[in-house]
Design a protein that fits this description.
The complex is a heterodimer of chains A (115) and B (115). With 115 residues, chain A is an all-beta fold. Helix content of chain A is 0%, strand content 55%. Chain B is mainly beta. In chain B, the strands form 2 sheets. In chain B, strands 2, 4, 5, 6, 9, 10 and 11 form a 7-stranded mixed β-sheet that branches. In chain B, strand 4 and strand 5 form a beta hairpin. The chains are: A mainly beta (115), B mainly beta (115). The interface between A and B is medium-sized, with 28 and 32 residues.
């Protein structure tokens, strides 16, 4: 069955520190992968996506993610975290079936940033 | 370019009532998907509309129904509301289906509270 696992429910980092949020997926075909960010009470904003090609993808706000097929992972990274990065982060895989396309999300990782 | 908009932002209903949520898709997008996000969880796919037809549905009962209009805006209707229907309802629009490589862009959501 298709699924996305985000092992870390809650992560706290200091401002200026590096960040890595983990994402593992289970999908039988070539995955289309996404990271979204959600600020409190808000909708989802797309950070970056992977469809094919270069396995290191760059996104907005200084984020990047690396697709590793052998590990079924798509981890999100940022070299230096800013206080405004505090939010919830969701990894998702696109599931294609019978002509429709739905996103399967992980449970999310809540990021707190200490000053 | 106008993004995805949803109305209302907040709604309070009582058990057994019916509710209609509205979504305007991003300009140029003809596909709309609806998701339910319960507190502390990732979004769950409800259904998807493509050119005014439902073309995919998640694991939600028939009392969740929808419409898509010729201008590609959409409605989500929920009948016989239950307490567990309390959630953030997210609408996402995407351009013409292209083998899954289209990206879904989310609106700010409608927060529904059922008492």
């Amino acid at each position: 069955a298709q699924s996305v696992t985000q092992p870390d429910i809650h992560i706290t980092v200091s401002e200026g520190a590096s960040l890595e949020l983990r994402c593992n997926y289970s999908y039988g075909a070539t995955p289309y992968l996404f990271w979204y960010v959600q600020s409190p009470g808000q909708g989802l904003q797309l950070l970056l996506k992977y469809f094919s090609g270069d396995t290191l993808v760059q996104g907005i706000k200084g984020f990047e993610a690396e697709f590793k097929r052998s590990q079924s992972s798509f981890n999100l990274r940022k070299p230096s975290v800013h206080w405004s990065d505090a939010a919830e982060y969701f990894c998702a895989v696109a599931f294609l079936s019978g002509g429709y396309n739905k996103l399967i999300f992980g449970a999310g990782t809540r990021l707190a940033v200490h000053p | 370019e106008t993004g995805v908009t949803q109305s209302p932002t907040h709604l309070i209903k009582t058990r057994g009532q019916q509710v209609t949520l509205r979504c305007s898709s991003q300009s140029g997008h003809n596909t709309v998907s609806w998701y339910q996000q319960a507190l502390g969880q990732g979004p769950q796919f409800i259904f998807q509309y493509y050119r005014e037809e439902e073309n995919g549905r998640g694991n939600f009962p028939p009392r969740f129904s929808g419409l898509q209009f010729p201008n590609y805006s959409s409605e989500l209707n929920v009948n016989a509301l239950e307490l567990d229907d309390s959630a953030l309802y997210l609408c996402a629009s995407s351009p013409d289906l292209a083998g899954g490589q289209e990206t879904q862009y989310f609106g700010p959501g409608t927060r529904l509270l059922v008492l």
